Amino acid sequence: MITFPNGTTVPALGQGTWNMGDSAGARESEIEALRTGIDLGLTVIDTAEMYGNGRSEELVGEAIAARRDEVFLVSKVLPSNASATGTIEACHASLRRLGTDRLDLYLLHWRGRHPLDETVAAFERLVAEGSIRAWGVSNLDPDDLDELPAGCQTDQVLYNLTRRGPEFDLLPRAASDGMPVMAYSPVEQGRLIDTPALAQISREVGATPTQVALAWTMRSGNVLAIPKASTAEHVRENAAAAGIRLADDVLERLDRAFPPPTRPVPLEMI
Ligand code: NAP
């Protein structure tokens, strides 16, 4: 479990949805995957107005219809929409596509031309009217975070075994602020799974590479991983990662295969 600054506690393993809803042929499997994830406790569902121009949100809405209260729902506003009025309109459009009256967390997808203060003021209006429970950001580096008014619940960033830059400054800073980080692309969009070093270590641990990669991402207790999986089989495999604790010697071997940063690394994005 991880706890946000406002005291809300959620499971440290959730579900991503980028590219979901794009293919009519995959729709049934994707909905089954999301529902299987909820059944298994992966109740944080991450989407965005950007994903498939709203198609991901529509798919999520269908998957969670009748189960809204079981889910911690996260969506994101595009930077181009993140003005004082644009943020409000974008949120209402997301809510319509999702078939719900509130988001649990609403994020600025990345920093754009609209001042952060303006976006946050709009987020606070959305909190006041009940459309969102809380707000946060994505793809913001520590300098950007310094500019934020109080109230940010998370920074969602690219973080996995092959993208360890946030460990140098962002993760320690978030931990000292009592703010969890959401790790996106925790299996590097699938590319990590076939890495020979990870495959070897995983065989010895008795888990799959995906499970080791996810358990590693969540190891600090302050990171929420949101892998995307479009089949129930993949979701079941991923859900089992929540119960895996990697021993110190395994973590050391992973450090040798995927070295931690020794200096600041500009935040990477996918
Ligand atoms: P990811 O979760 O690292 O990887 C997804 C890929 O891994 C898919 O091809 C999936 O295949 C595969 N996969 C997952 N579980 C698997 C398993 N057990 N066995 C084999 N393959 C498996 O990449 P991502 O989708 O880029 O990132 C996750 C989520 O983070 C996104 O969906 C999105 O919600 C969020 N995100 C946010 C940002 C941002 O800017 N804030 C950017 C990128 C992503 P199948 O689909 O076939 O299961």
Write the layout of secondary structure elements.
Elements: E1 2-3, E2 9-10, E3 15-16, H1 27-39, E4 44-46, H2 55-64, E5 72-77, H3 84-98, E6 105-108, H4 116-129, E7 135-138, H5 142-146, E8 152-158, H6 170-177, E9 181-184, H7 196-205, H8 209-217, E10 223-225, H9 232-239, H10 248-257
Parallel strand pairs: 3-4, 4-5, 5-6, 6-7, 7-8, 8-9, 9-10
Antiparallel strand pairs: 1-2
Helix pairs in contact: 1-2, 1-9, 3-4, 7-8, 7-10
The protein binds NADP nicotinamide-adenine-dinucleotide phosphate (NAP).
Notable traits:
binds NADP nicotinamide-adenine-dinucleotide phosphate; TIM Barrel; 10 helices; 8-stranded parallel sheet; two-stranded antiparallel ribbon; globular; 38% helix; alpha/beta
Counting structural domains, the number is 1
Rg, nearest Å: 18 Å
CATH class division? Alpha Beta
List how many beta strands DSSP finds.
10
Shape: globular
N- and C-termini, Cα separation: 26 Å
Strand content: 5-15%
Q: Low-confidence spans: pLDDT under 50, at least 5 residues? A: none
The overall pLDDT, averaged over residues, is 97
Taking the sheet with the most strands, its summary is: 8 strands, parallel
* Helix run count: 10
Q: Identify the CATH homologous superfamily.
A: NADP-dependent oxidoreductase domain
CATH topology: TIM Barrel
Secondary-structure-derived class: alpha/beta
